[in-house]
Amino acid sequence: MSEALRVGLAGLGTVGGGVIRLLDANRELIARRAGRAIEVVAVSARDRYKDRGVDLTRFAWVDDTTALAQQADVDVVVELIGGSDGPALTLARSTLAADKSFVTANKAMLAHHGYELATAAEAARVALKFEAAVAGGIPVIKGLREGAAANAIGRVYGILNGTCNFILSKMEAEGRDFAEILAEAQALGFAEADPSFDIDGVDAAHKLSILASIAFGTRPAFDTVAASGIRHLLGADIAEAAALGYRVRLLGLAEDGPDGLFQRVHAHLVPVDHPLAHVTGSLNAVVAEGNFVGRLLFQGAGAGDGPTATAV
After folding, report:
1. Is this prediction's pTM over 0.85?
2. What pLDDT, in 10s, does the model give residues 129-166?
3. Could you report the per-residue pLDDT of 192-212, keeping only the tens digit for each?
4. Could you tell me if 155 and 124 lie in one domain?
5. Catalytic residue numbers?
6. Which of 132, 189, 216, 258 has the fewest CB atoms nearer than 10 Å to its CB?
7. Structural domain tally of the chain?
8. Is 71 in a helix, a strand, or coil?
9. How far apart are CA 310 and CA 166, in angstroms?
10. Which domain range does residue 245 map to?
11. In sequence order, what are the beta bridge partners of 22?
């Protein structure tokens, strides 16, 4: 077996802790499948002394996150900080400049700077991996890039935000209004204290721009995504849709047509006989339509420590 792949891990929140726990639990399985052990050797986060439920004493602590790329004993850097710019982008650039591979779950950074980072990775002949940036544990990036590589993709669309899907599913099942369900989602941890990125469609737009770039071989074009959310939906809207044979879902849709790339995130009426109408709770689902394979449906957990750590 080859020497271990040594990982520098930046960010020790929910997903970062999940990555460590997954590697601990499935260490032998992963080594067997990868042909080499994968070992975290260095970590970095804002608070060194916060209790994260995992033993960090076995890892080297790096106070300056961006210095992870310069660690001699680090082969690949995993970024789980978040944010389109700032320390995450600085770390990405410095890692690729050091000719080291880079793994990220950062959808916002990729939506805004993905082309730059992909170009840098190609020039350095290292890997830039971002399965965890879209739809949590669902292997949709690999599915589109490899599984559907022989197909021309006509369009890709789906439920890309678990918070919105949780809210819409509850409104549908219980007949309550948006504000009431949002407050419940926040209490349960499904929604942030400031949920604007989720409920206004920005999070889904980040993910859609990445999916579209993979499906159609284009640069990520977040600025051209027309995005609206679910903030103004009423319980009465959900009930009226149901009476007409539809369910309301926040969908991201990308299509490469004769007039160029079309990208939109909006609340959509989904016929009850469509698979997406039956995706409930915080689940995500992505549909890709290929000219030979037909409709492909990818569905699963779109967030959480276990699913997202799996994608990492």
Report:
1. yes
2. 999 999 989 999 999 999 999 999 999 999 999 999 99
3. 888 999 999 999 999 999 999
4. no
5. 207
6. 258
7. 2
8. coil
9. 22
10. 140-302
11. none
